[in-house]
Structure formats: C-alpha cells, structure tokens
Amino acid sequence: MEMRKAAETVLSSLPRPIGTWALFLDVDGTLLDIAPTPDGVGVPTELRQTLSALHHGLNGAIALVSGRSLDQLDRLFAPNSLTAAGQHGAEMRLANGSQVRTEISRSLLDQLRGQLGNFTARIPGVIIEDKGLSIAFHYRLAPRRSAAIHRQLIDALGRQRAEFRILRGNMVYEIVPKLADKGTAIESFMKMDPFIGRTPIFIGDDVTDEDGFASVRKLQGYAVRVQSEPVQLGSKIVSAASVVRGWLATLPDAIAREQGNFTN
Ligand SMILES: [Mg+2]
C-alpha cells in the first residue's frame, strides 16, 4: 500500500495550473507495466486515449522520453506517432513531426554487437536488442549474470569510450551514444514550441531517468520518480505505472475545468 500511496501523493501535489505544464513521460515502468521481455508489454486502450486528450489539452506539450527506439514506440502506441525522444535521446521526433538523430559510427556498433553477441549467446535468458543507435542487453531472465555481462561490456568498449558509454538501467545494460541522455533531450524540447515557457514535469522510474530529473529541476520544473517493481496487495498485483495511468486519465478534464470551458 505504501508505494501506491506514495506515488499518488507526489503526483497530486504537483503545482497547478496543469494547462501550463510540459509533460515528459518515461514509458517502461512509468506508463507501462514491466514485462519479463521487452516485447511482452501491453498498451491499454485507455492510455492511448488519455495521451491523445492530453496532447490536445496541453497544446502538444507532451512527449515520451524512453530508452526504446522511435520505431518501437510507434509500434506500441499505433496509430499515434507521438512526440518523443527515443534511445535515451539519441533520436527525437519533434512536435512538428521532423526527426533528429545523433550521428554515430555504425561500424563500431556492429563490431561491439558481434563481439558481445558471441558472449551473451552463451548465457540463456539474455536478450539483445539492437535499436540502431544503441544496443540493449536485457538480463531480467538471467539476473545472476549481471556482473559478468557488465564486465564484458566494459572490456568490449575498451578504448571506444569517446563515442559510446554504458548505461545501466532496470535489469538492462545499454551501449548508448556518449552525448545522448534523457536530460539533454528534455532540454532540447524545452527550447522549442510548444514546450517553451511551460513548466516541465518529468515522470520516470529508473536510474536512467536521473539525467531527466536533473534537467527539469534546473528548468524550475518537477521530477517524479515512481517505483518500477509491482507489489502484491492481497490477491492483487499493482504497479506504479497503473497509478500513473489512473492519475493521467484525470488530467484532461482538470485542464478543461481550469480553462473554464467545462460544458456539461
Ligand atoms: Mg522506465
């Protein structure tokens, strides 16, 4: 019960008016319940509807900020192509629909992928996800091999640290472009319409969201970190993501009331 209360309390204490927010949302563990594999997550229909309503209510000042690629996000949230930062900010789709991608050395990433693929192929349960500008090594199904995988990544990266770095997330290690992080992505959005001049709010659940939290605080905004792991409540399992979804669903009407055009 503690976790559910904590998330609800923090979320409902965010300053109003809501209509002036720029809302940044991590995806896995924040909007969506964590699944055993990256492809195992589901997007509830109501969440799609909520995000569309919020896009309208916030004049487009809402973006996903995720470790997933834009392609993956589009598949998950279809038919919507949401404004988003993918691969921890290495690629962005701006509010006007145009895309920005970090330049990387794909040949170097291929080399790392080959080398590390050979290693992780010997570890049952490790899932490699090549996202184009970054590579994720999920070990949720092989949690005891965490340290061994980490050591191997450090070795493989070796002297290539000018271009890539290792990012540690929830049951995942990733090789990401050195200059990409969620904070830089949020700061880029905040310099552009329709985000500029608004109060940034970032909701995330993971250590990889820390850069984003720091950025919104720097911009006089608010950071909310929810817990990733579901907890058992009696016969029910609840996740922080379900609390976030429930809270988000209340926002479109609240914005409409603020604007005094609540017709009923
Ligand atoms: Mg997350």
Bound molecules: magnesium ion
Q: Quote the beta fraction.
A: 15-25%
Over all CA atoms, what is the radius of gyration? 19 Å
Q: What is the string of SSEs from the N terminus onward?
A: HEHEHEEEHEEHEEHEHEEEH
Q: Extract low-pLDDT stretches.
A: none
Output the number of helix runs.
8
Name the CATH superfamily assignment of the largest domain: HAD superfamily/HAD-like
- CATH classification class of the largest domain: Alpha Beta
Q: How many structural domains does the protein architecture include?
A: 2
- Major beta sheet summary: 7 strands, mixed
State the CATH topology of the largest domain: Rossmann fold
| Approximate helicity band | 25-40%
CATH architecture of the largest domain: 3-Layer(aba) Sandwich
Mean pLDDT: 92
Structural class: alpha/beta
Count every beta strand, where a strand is a DSSP E run of 2 or more residues. Answer: 13
The coarse overall form would be: globular
- Biggest sheet strand line-up: 5-4-3-2-1-10-11
Distance between the termini: 35 Å
